[in-house]
Design a protein that fits this description.
Chain lengths: 71, 501
């Protein structure tokens, strides 16, 4: 029985080890450096910061991107 | 789209994409519209199938719920006895709806964030077909009496292996997509999605093997069961939900996430601590104390990812709450984000031994599960679908009224269910702890609350029918073409916008 519990603990620890490997990979890839800029990668010239992309009504032309064009 | 030199002139095969030595020059930039175009079929297929299972799962839930009030209801038909309908409901909504809508949303998010052309689309169609065949086999198998009775793993063995095969194909696609992404920073949503699609097949395969194929001793199956059941929530549904909130909230309001550092801390702390959580379900059971204690400690460590995510959700939205009046996506997603915080903190509190002693084996746990999987995850997925589908079909949602009704029925429904089941559970748990109170009295305490549960279920089901109607209408391009997104309200001009943004 004790061996089985050790197996379960090992399975759980395997998840932690895999997370550590992932963390190491991320660090090696430079993903943990200058993370401040990371938040900006979802914005670009097409959909810049400050441009709502869903559903703000009564917008002046250009301040809300119509979803049915230019995507 | 500008394209740099491509080293492999031929279109890569699936084997090429999987070979470690295969290298390609990544295209400089791909239009979002092009990505949407190539993903339209698979994503709509996954979302469409998911909505079908949501409707069926809701019907099964209503039957099970009514049976708690009227035990004789449909009792003469073995296929619809409570012991079969209830697990059929759980599996239909968890794997049929939850996992599939998550796949649809995650495919779209991953492709957009990787910013490269979608490759091996056929893999996704094959995956959707195999996966849904597995779900169908599983649900029919459970209703036919072939269920395993292991919670969250009730699918018969012959269905589980098909489900696994279907899901594994999507995971392979995700890895390929991530591998050949556009160089540069990996957004936090990509980490969450990649991890979720790595974790789930591993969890599902391991749990099935250890419980059914090479079964460990009976008493040890409990920890394996809860290791899987809890991790399916925390290492699959939660990461997809959080990935969606971290993309959709900033994109909808046009503002970067409040603290990107916190989002990174949140992801890695989830990865490190969550896998120990499941054993807190077994407090008081015949298990080694160290196993339970480690789980209790890990449950408290979850405060780190939860608080960091909650801070980010809240402070990203500060100054933009007015936008909730007009954006369908934001309304659903922010509702879900709030429920995430509440259900996660509640989950941690349920790992406290004296709280667990009262709430274990009661409706309180069911209320908690619905707050997490529906109040948080499903509401975020609804919001994501409202954001994604118009971009895929190049058509706006035909009716703001339908969206409004959907939101209120689902939102009020799940809160009503959460409150009624939580109160019922507390009464039930305290009664069970009192030796002077008979068991049947503890059951009687919950009767009124179980009717409330049925009523809330009717509300949520009505919301699902409305959602499915909206989805069918937008696929058919119903109504006139709109130049602007469908809004929940149509307020006046720029002054209102200025207040919102």
């Amino acid at each position: 029985m004790a061996y089985t519990y050790i197996f379960i603990a090992a399975a759980i620890l395997a998840a932690v080890v895999m997370a550590l490997i992932g963390f190491y990979y991320a660090a090696r890839q430079g993903q943990l450096r200058s993370v401040k800029d990371g938040s900006m990668v979802i914005f670009d010239a097409e959909e810049p910061v400050g441009l709502p992309t869903d559903a703000f009504p009564g917008a002046e032309p250009g301040s809300v991107r119509p979803r049915t064009s230019g995507r | 789209m500008s394209v740099a030199t491509v080293e492999s002139p031929a279109k890569p095969t699936l084997v090429d994409s999987l070979l470690p030595q295969h290298r390609e020059t990544i295209e400089d930039k791909v239009d979002r519209a092009e990505i949407d175009q190539t993903l339209r079929g698979p994503v709509l297929l996954y979302i469409g199938f998911a909505i079908f299972w949501l409707l069926l799962g809701s019907l099964l839930a209503l039957i099970a719920s009514v049976k708690l009030n009227v035990p004789g209801f449909l009792a003469d038909w073995s296929w619809l006895t409570f012991g079969r309908v209830r697990p059929a409901h759980l599996n239909a909504v968890a794997y049929g709806w939850g996992a599939q809508v998550g796949v649809g949303v995650a495919l779209w998010l991953m492709a957009r964030l990787c910013r490269v052309p979608v490759r091996h689309g056929g893999l996704l169609y094959a995956s959707a077909g195999i996966y849904n065949f597995g779900i169908l086999l599983g649900i029919v198998g459970i209703l036919a009496g072939h269920g395993t009775s292991v919670e969250w793993l009730e699918f018969p063995r012959y269905a589980a292996i098909v489900v696994f095969a279907g899901f594994a194909l999507v995971s392979i696609w995700m890895v390929i997509m991530f591998r050949f992404r556009k160089p540069g920073h990996v957004y936090v949503s990509q980490w969450y999605i990649l991890a979720a699609f790595f974790w789930f097949p591993w969890l599902y395969a391991t749990a099935n093997i250890v419980i059914f194929y090479l079964p460990v001793q009976a008493a040890v199956q409990g920890p394996v069961n809860w290791w899987y059941g809890h991790n399916a929530l925390g290492l699959f549904f939660t990461p997809i939900g959080i990935a969606s909130t971290y993309y959709l909230i900033p994109k909808v309001i046009g503002r970067p996430v409040y603290s990107y550092q916190l989002s990174i801390i949140g992801f890695w702390s989830l990865a490190f601590f969550y896998s120990w959580n499941g054993m807190h379900h077994l407090i008081g059971g015949p298990f080694p104390a160290w196993l339970i204690s480690a789980s209790v400690v890990a449950s408290f460590m979850m405060v780190i990812p939860v608080v960091t995510t909650a801070i980010n959700h809240h402070f990203t939205m500060v100054g933009h709450f007015g936008a909730l009046r007009w954006s369908p996506t934001l309304r659903f997603v922010v509702f879900g984000a709030v429920c995430y915080t509440i259900s996660s903190i509640q989950g941690t509190s349920m790992a406290i031994r004296w709280v667990n002693q009262v709430t274990h084996f009661t409706h309180y746990t069911i209320g908690h599960a619905h707050l997490g999987l529906y109040g948080f995850y499903t509401m975020v997925m609804f919001g994501a679908v409202y954001y994604i589908v118009p971009r895929l079909v190049d058509w706006e949602w035909p009716s703001a009224n339908l969206i409004r009704w959907h939101f209120w029925l689902s939102g009020i429904g799940v809160l009503f269910m959460f409150v009624s089941l939580s109160v019922a559970g507390l009464f039930q748990g305290l009664a069970l702890e009192d030796p002077k109170i008979s068991f049947i009295t503890s059951v009687n305490y919950t009767k009124a609350f179980l009717w409330m549960r049925s009523l809330s279920g009717i509300m949520m089901t009505a919301g699902h029918i409305i959602f499915a109607t909206s989805f069918a209408l937008i696929l058919r391009h119903a109504g006139a073409r709109r130049a602007r997104p469908t809004l929940l309200t149509q307020p006046d001009e720029p002054a209102v916008l200025a207040a919102a943004v």
